[in-house]
Amino acid sequence: MLTIWGRTSSVNVQKVLWCAEELGLRYERVDVGGAHGGNREPSYLARNPNGRVPLLTEGDFAIWESNSIVRYLAARYGAGGPQGEGALWNADPAERGLADQWMDWQQTTLAPPMTTVFWGHVRTPPERRDMAAIGQAARDAAAAWAIVEGHLSRHEYLSGTRFGMGDIPAGAMAWRWFRLPVERPAMPALSRWFDALQRRPGYRKWVMVELT
Ligand SMILES: N[C@@H](CCC(=O)N[C@@H](CS)C(=O)NCC(=O)O)C(=O)O
Question: Which atom of ligand 1 is nearest to the CA of 53?
Answer without folding.
Answer: 12
